[in-house]
Design a protein that fits this description.
CATH class of one domain: Alpha Beta
Shape: globular
Number of strands: 7
Structural class: mainly alpha
CATH topology of one domain: Rossmann fold
Radius of gyration: 30 Å
Oligomer: single chain
Strand content: under 5%
CATH architecture of one domain: 3-Layer(aba) Sandwich
Distance between the termini: 97 Å
Largest sheet: 5 strands, parallel
Strand order of the largest sheet: 2-3-4-1-5
Helix content: 55-70%
Length: about 650
């Protein structure tokens, strides 16, 4: 029997929070989760947010072919960027748009899920005047790619009509499906010098490598095969080692350690795995890899948990005749360091062990998912250890194309009776999924399904609000707004108010999103599908924002029509609107909106004007009298009664 055999265990005392009801306990975890999401969002590499684009621009190394892409974009207002995976094609597409002069429009990524729409995959309504648009099809399947190409001609007409610009990232693996009539818009880019990319990233961190150091054999070998995102990650690791290491260590040591962490240990792990004809030892090996730099008891508990989940028979040998944990760790090339934490003796070995299990034992992937779920629920587990284990599991699940494992975990960890400390982990797996190049679209669609479903738990809904507002909003703000709108229609008050606040904040700084929100509110009010839409409409902080746009006035009038015919407290909201116009032009437009709202029910004209007169009488002022006068004129015109004129 080995030290990794089954042992009976129980929790004799709690080392973490165990309260599982509603209230302050959960609120603490919601607050910590939101703080983490904000910090994570600032480091998001795929974001189209302006500060992230500036950060990328400082570190960007132009690939071959970018100048041709620039010329096509200027001449045709559209360019199709094609390049191998890992060549920096998305970064190049973002920089093409970022370099354009900033005009009246915005830079945003086009929605990549259908959501509430039944229209074409590319909708001309998503194009605003002067917009800079990104369409990332790099991971599209055949069906979506063909549909997008079919819709591209009409969509390009909207782009041209609005003096906008469009950059499309093509899927290199589907090059044979590109239509002949679109080939003239394609620009092929080649991977830039990985050495220059590394040097640029290091210099931006204040590290200046010598030419000799950049020419070392180990580094050249790594740079020759690594995707550019891994090159950037190497620079980030070097910078973190610099900040964490003693002052007497230098760049050669930091770079050596960072490369060792990246070193491919696959063959060595495979040999050790084959030699260890012992399930207990293999379970211990994976436990060390998943809970790397945890305490020995955590590693042993995890190993025993995996054995139990796989129904592995226990070793009948008496316990004191078994090897102790020290010997068992040595057998799998691990040790306990001076700090009391268990780690492998070779850098990068833990990652290779995880990759071996997920690659070559595909039949136990579901059991590995269940194993992590149970281990994460252990209240004695340190929060940092739990966080790293979740990160490692997510990386492997996404690598082997099992995004549904992460979605399942998010649901389990936000179930009604799930421990409160798993709330941050549910958000974590969703964020990691959203940020993944290959599976981000899967998670955006799944989050939509949850947001629109009546069966989603309240804890999951609150996590979705945070993930949409803090993470998805930075890369796909349109889709984030749609999901927040569904969440804002919820019956649970804490969910409804949080989603409503996030929705209004998201649209506060972006006129395009604000207009999209009004369009959705008007659609909901006109279809009488949700009373919550009227509540959101009441919360608009600035009634005259964009009121000069005809489409905005239409949406406002539809919402006001619903307010006048469906609620009794509309006079209070009317007083706010009547008093907000600062200029004669604004007061005229407000009057037009209010009069248009009564067009379908002429009885409302009189009620509206009487309420306006009551407002004037409550505090007679010239400005109020002028507003009432303009409202009367708009009401008359709406009824076909045209005055000869009016004095200013």
């Amino acid at each position: 029997m080995t030290a990794a055999s089954h042992f009976a265990s129980f929790v004799g005392e709690a080392h973490g929070s165990v309260h599982s009801g509603e209230g302050a306990q959960y609120n603490i975890y919601y607050q910590s989760t939101e703080q983490w999401l904000r910090e994570q969002a600032r480091r998001r590499p795929r974001s189209v947010a302006e500060e992230d684009r500036r950060h990328l621009h400082e570190r960007f190394v132009a690939p071959l072919g970018l100048q041709h892409a620039r010329a096509l974009l200027q001449a045709e207002h559209t360019v199709l960027v094609r390049g191998h995976s890992g060549s920096g094609r998305r970064a190049a597409a973002l920089m093409l748009l970022h370099e354009l002069p900033v005009r009246e429009g915005t830079l945003h990524e086009l929605p990549d899920t259908s959501d509430d729409s039944t229209g074409p995959p590319l909708d001309g309504r998503d194009v605003g005047r002067g917009d800079r648009l990104l369409l990332d099809l790099s991971e599209a399947d055949e069906t979506r790619y063909i549909a997008a190409q079919s819709a591209l001609s009409d969509f390009r007409s909207s782009v041209a009509a609005n003096d906008a610009y469009l950059v499309v990232v093509l899927p290199h693996h589907l090059g044979y499906l590109l239509r002949g009539d679109l080939r003239y818009l394609m620009a092929e880019i080649s991977r830039p010098s990985a050495r220059r990319v590394l040097a640029t990233h290091l210099k931006c961190a204040g590290i200046h490598p010598s030419e000799a150091l950049l020419g070392s054999a180990d580094l050249i070998s790594f740079l020759a095969r690594a995707p550019l995102r891994d090159v950037a990650a190497l620079a980030d690791r070097v910078n973190r080692l610099r900040m964490a290491s003693p002052a007497d260590r230098g760049l050669p040591d930091w770079l050596k350690q960072a490369l060792e962490e990246q070193h491919d240990q696959t063959e060595r792990v495979a040999a050790v795995f084959s030699a260890a004809q012992n399930g207990h030892r293999r379970a211990l090996q994976l436990a060390v890899a998943m809970f790397h730099e945890a305490t020995p008891d955590v590693v042993l508990y995890a190993a025993n948990g995996l054995l139990g989940l796989l129904s592995h028979p226990p070793d009948p040998t008496p316990r004191l005749e078994q090897a102790d944990l020290y010997a068992e760790l040595s057998a799998v090339h691990a040790e306990m360091g001076p700090d009391g934490l268990v780690r492998f003796t070779v850098h990068g070995y833990d990652r290779a062990v995880r990759q071996h299990f997920w690659t070559f034992l595909p039949d136990i992937r579901q059991e590995l998912r269940d194993w992590l779920m149970r281990q994460a629920a252990n209240p004695a587990l340190d929060a940092a250890v739990r966080r790293e284990a979740v990160n490692r599991f997510a990386h492997q699940a996404l690598r082997v194309a099992r995004p549904e494992d992460l979605a399942w975990l998010a649901q389990q960890w936000t179930a009604f009776k799930a421990p409160a400390w798993l709330i941050p982990e549910a958000a974590r797996v969703l964020v990691l999924g959203l940020e993944d190049d290959h599976h981000g679209r899967f998670f955006r669609q799944r989050i939509y399904d949850w947001a629109a479903s009546d069966d989603t738990s309240v804890h999951c809904l609150r996590v979705l609000i945070m993930v949409c507002s803090q993470t998805m909003a930075r890369s796909h703000p349109d889709q984030a707004l749609v999901r927040l709108h569904h969440l804002a229609r919820r019956s649970r008050e804490e969910v409804r108010w949080a989603a409503r606040k996030a929705m209004v904040q998201l649209s506060a700084a972006d006129d395009r999103l604000y207009q999209l929100m009004l369009e959705r509110l008007a659609a909901g009010v006109s279809q009488r599908s949700s009373r919550a839409d009227l509540d959101i409409f009441r919360d608009l902080p600035n009634p005259v924002r964009l009121i000069r746009r005809r489409s905005v006035r239409h949406y406002l009038a539809v919402c006001w029509a619903g307010l006048l015919s469906g609620t009794a407290d509309w006079p209070a909201h009317l007083r706010l609107w009547l008093g907000v116009g600062e200029t004669a032009a604004e007061r005229d437009l407000i009057a037009q909106v209010l009069a248009s709202a009564c067009a379908q029910d002429t009885r409302l004209f009189g009620r509206l004007y009487r309420a306006a007169l009551d407002w004037v009488r409550s505090r007679p002022e010239p400005g109020r009298a002028d507003m009432a006068s303009r409202l009367l004129l708009a009401i008359n015109e709406a009824q076909g009664i045209h005055a000869y004129g009016r004095t200013a």
